Protein 1
Amino acid sequence: MDAILSARNIRKCYGSFVALKDISFDLPRGERHALIGPNGAGKSTFIACVAGQLPGVEGELLFKGHNITSLTPASLAKKGIGRTFQISRAFLGMTVMENIMAAVVISTGRWASLSRGLYRENLDKAFHLLETVALVERAADRVGDLSLGDRKRLEFGMALANDPDLLLLDEPTAGMSIKERHYLMEMVATRMEETNKTLLFVEHDIDVVMKIAQRVTVMARGAVLAAGTPGEIAANEEVQAIYLGGGH
Amino acid sequence: MTETAHPTRLSRRWSSLPGIDINWKLVIPALVLAEIINRSMGTSTTTLLTEILIFALFATSLNLLMSFGHMVSFGHSAYFGLGAYGFTLGVVKAGLPVEAAVFLGPLVAALGGLVFGALCVRLTEIYFAMLTLACAQITYTVLFQWYDFTGGDTGITGFMAPRFGLSEQGFASLTLVVVTLSIFALWWIVRSPLGLSIRAAGQDRFRAEALGLTVRRVQLSAFVIAAFFAGIAGTLHAVLNGAAFPDYAGLSLTLDSLIMVVLGGLNSFSGGIWGAIVYKLLGAFVPSFIHEWELVLGIILLAIVLTMPKGFAGLIARLGLDRKGAK
């Protein structure tokens, strides 16, 4: 198995509270992988560790075989890890197009350029990203005026600007209607499929998980409870008891 | 693809950034009017005009940090002072001709911005602001107390004829050209990819970092640019007076510039310019009618903050005068 991301004994503590207990995990290249579990299971903490957002992470994170454990978010983005946040984070005072263009400009590494020619050079790419996330018609609108669903799609589009090999989505559908959830995640899945990129996402909507994920890891109390295909997870009695709330 | 969605149309639409537009139909007549006032009015009006221009540049340089980089600096006067002393000491100590020393002033200010900025951008929000204040106070103290080098509290005077020996009108015209070009350069920077990156880093540093931007480096760039243009303002002020004083780097000047930016309008490129005009005009005319003019200023500020939170630039926008092609 060609793992694009490998976690080895990842441990993260907040004071005396252990949020992640020696998590080991391999994510195959090109896979759409969901992290699920009850609140406080450590899913978002794990995503934040991979994204370089947390200090004091113990263990080893390997991305394409390279140790990335202590790298900054900016370095990780340059290496090919894109992400969106649990709470929508876009540049609220800018227009949709400015957000996309900012992401594109940053992805070129020429952020210090004084030439507006850089915008013209990258207009097609920015436009294509807008098309991908179906926000062309809202290009001139301020992000602060967008609905949550539009913002989440915008964030997804911005995360794609760098053409990341691994995309991390932390609760991408939180706060969205059922229709919006499926629309966004189908859009994400299609893009990942087309480009053969890897997706790791945290999601609470089991319908979305079952539909989008190829494999699922269930976490509980900072540890991995189970891992497998959606079908295997749905049939796992321990997972049923702890998380899915069913039980036969 | 719909008509509105064509990339070229998008390019035109998105390049009209709110608060960054220039209405040339307003700007060009304003520049002409400034020159007419300069040439037709008395010496005191000309000197006031020169001061307004210098402080318009100073406030605009601070505005780059505050409105676009979301970095509130309590120590921007340090770079005004370093510009003034860089020029003055270049003449007095290094023996440079004044024509050469005017280039040294802004460079010294930019160097100061690089050194202090590298420290300040390590922190954010109020801690950033406090550190900028500390850096400015260090600068002020050195200028105030290092008698052998900076002249201490008496400053450095008499080393050149004020205004390069030009008439008040001649120097005002020169200042108008330098300030216009400098503000145009700042406007260019704000609209450039660098400006977009400064705005991105200011609006959400976590998002910017996740996209691959090294936020501290961007903020340091903004800091150095702002210091450089503040240094130009400081140099012009030293040339105007033919002197440099430690007060140029003092807290009072920082507060003046902060008031100008707020008065003129945060989050607007022209905020610093409007703020300098209004603040300097109030300072020039209100004391003629009332001794306690600071009290009047306080009341006016209060009224503006309560009724026009976007300052005078917001009022101009409301009147539709900020847009291209507006009447």
Protein 2
Amino acid sequence: MKIGIVRFPGSNCDQDCHRAVDEGVGAEAAYLWHKSHDLEGCQAILLPGGFSYGDHLRAGAIARFSPIMREVIAFARDGGPVLGICNGFQVLCEAGLLPGALVRNDSLRFRSHPVRVRVEQTDTPFTSEYEEGDVLRMPIAHGEGQYVADQSVIDALESERRVIFRYVDELGQRTEEANPNGSVRNIAGICDEGRRVVGLMPHPERVVSKLLGTDGLGVFHSLIGSLQATGDGTTTQTTRAGDGPAAQAAEAPATHAPGVAEASAP
Amino acid sequence: MSGSATRAPVIEITPELVADHGLSPDEYEQILEILGREPTFPELGVFSAMWSEHCGYKNSRPHLETLPTEGPLVVQGPGENAGVIDAGDGWGVAFKIESHNHPSAVEPYQGAATGSGGILRDVFTMGARPIAILDSLHFGSLDSPRSRYLLDGVVRGVGDYGNCVGVPTVGGEAIFDPSYERNPIINVMCIGILRLDDLMRGKAEGVGNAVMAVGARTGRDGIHGATFASVELDEGSDSRPQVQVGDPFTEKLLLEASLELIGRDLLVGIQDMGAAGLTSSGTEMAARSGSGIDIDVALVPVREQGMTPYEILLSESQERMLLVAKPGCESSVADVLSKWDLEAAVVGRVTDDGFFRVRDGGEVVVEIPVQPLVNECPTYTREGVEDPEVRRLRELDIAEYSAPISDQEAADALLTLLDSPSLASCRWIYEQYDTTVGTNTVVGPGSDAAVLRLADSGRGIAASLDCNGRYVYLEPRRGAKIAMAEAARNVACSGARPVAITNCLNFGNPLKPGTYYHFAEAVAGLGEGCRALSTPVTGGNVSFYNETPDGAVYPTPVIGMIGLLEHLDRVVPSCFRTPGSTVVLVGETGDELGASEYLAACHGVVGGAPPQIDLEEARRLVDFLVEAAERRLVLSAHDCAEGGLAVALAECSLGGPDGPLAVEAELRTDVPAAAALYGESQSRVVLSCDPETVEEIVALAAERGLPVAVIGSVGPPDGRFRLAAAGVQIDLELDRIHDVYRSALPRRMEKQAGLTT
């Protein structure tokens, strides 16, 4: 099982993602160079945080045109699991794999501090090891993290249960104060129609050790579990819109990974 | 493709031109002697830059040479791009501090950003991966729109640069005082880690080896920045052309490319083209190796046409490196740079004739012997005289402020101090910095010291930046010793043993006897501190001329202290964590209100002598803290500094990750209440511990000859802050002091939306 981590020029969470896969959950991690067209047989792709191409034009706007992204987009369209974290989420939106956009924080300032996010859905390859309603503590660090989309898109995301993470307070309540950037409906992370492509602004890869917190481990354990469940890595076949429920059933969480239970707030 | 330098008209070297280059008639005589002829115009520029205060340390070197620079852990001392210490198991820690005061005064965003860029390059050219930045910021009062504008711009500048490069900003200090009104102090420290096998230096060895310019192209920005940094800012200073513009994206690429070049063993040496650009990097690399260097400016990739040799030599365009490739490695070097979408050009060769020779195509335009240029910059030892006004302030009778105070006055004073921007929560600042990228930040901003993971060694690196300029102003030697002791104490509070420092000496015009006195005395104090604490200096920076027509800034020698923590899992937090734990005060509380924040913030008085400092006791306190952490005796440890015991206790109560905890404490003392609560007696630490370990702590302190008192206990999350001393009782709601403490900065910065220049 091999997880690919794309390195764009300006990626700066690539090593943290590598460590989360490698030391965090003991899977093989491989860097994929932005100029390459080869996914090197990876069974899942992570787009790490950072400032790809210096955020020139807009965060993620140039990265979507890089050679590797053509392959990532094809991989995602075939139902391959893809996770975009922070700048990776921005790239996924720019590439059209996820709807909506991430714009300047409502404070107009870069914001970096721990937040709490609630796991809203567990039928994705990146959340299957959590329980719905789990409250996770992980850091954010972004200047453009305010999630926005047309009302119709937001309605669709809600009705199709595609909001995966939401900013909440320590009691798990969605409040205005808990929303660090003005994201509509406190949205911190979403998935695509096929539920295989997930993007989120907070950094689960920064909290995968006893020393720094373990709330992010579940994301990586989920991925490993889901790849094992779908036949040791061969990607699932294309899921059409509307296939969601079937896909969910196939990926019902098996067991909780160690570390996840203690990580989750009541 | 490289541009070609434009042949400049021959410029006559007049006395006025020499003076404009900041060179005295005597210095010019010395140049004539070295060359045996008149310099060319580019040569005059080269001497001017290398013999500026910034590069040549002409007024500081005699004093800096008195500082201890050696120790068992020092792998690389001063004179390189950064200092390096041995952290065990083959790991090294590279670190250095740099000032960017003048650029930030003129253009705060770019000034601060390029300051971060420069210090990052100093660290990664040593072969180290930067893992943290700390910043020491001193501004004028936030009541002034100018100071708010500067703070806003500097914070964005430091943040945007570090955030983009992916190096977390993990700590530092922010001080506000009218003395910094028009000349802020912006010091940035960078810490990197490396395998000592990969240690790289700025050398130019091996005759015939290729000298390569890599990274960004050379433009006309920042020409003579080093000279600019060496003069006072005058009325209406608008020197924007001398401020460089940073590009953190290029820096990130350059960082990765440089580490790849070093990791693949392709280089002989590498150095940042920082202050004085190609000139300082080329000549310093040659000087270290006793070699010469031969460069053709026509081969240097330029950003714009028509640049003269003078401009190419002295440009301070950012994100450029000069390197010397190993024989036969030129094309591999170029391949690595190209992989990272960066340019590389062979611009010259290493020679063995000891000359810095610059050609413009065929014509030689500079030919200067390297050794006298780099190592024989004239130095000056001047006579320092204490300014009578400083003595008057120090000797000011402050006895009246020790008069009894009421409970109400004591409580009001606490609220005033917690609302003072220098003491209040810095959260507004550090929430604009990525503090956790790289997953090395074990303890981030808001604590006495930042603590970082040393790769997977199980050990940690602690770091702290400190300086109280008011102390140094009133009594420089003592103030500098206090800065040293406080930096060491901060690091030791985390459980780490302080091992070495880098320093950034920010002073006014050294030609003024009062300033020179401050400088000489402060450096003497630093030396005493270094020796007493066994923390040698591994490098640093001197920034003079921090003054405007309104006068000089407070003398501000910022200490960047590095400590090593043997067991990362025994790291000690600063703030209270556990309701029911016992609060202990280590150290003696005297009747010492002099130079305090209390006098300044509550009475508008700057005066009195700074508190006493006994370095031997400071060292025993460090030993005590390290041992207490090692034996897991304490739950938290926090330095008692500006604002005294009352503020230290409040910080312990308010700063925890899960919100404030109540405190109930009483200090039994004969000292008058104001001094007991707000005096800044040194070598004191507030600890919390399990009630069952109190006896052990008391015994350990006694063993070390340190006074110790059990003063109270930590309460539940919702409750009150109660502190009694000398018959006075402060009794305030936690929520109230918490609001004051955390809103002091945002209240001033966000509501005053009209940020103006």
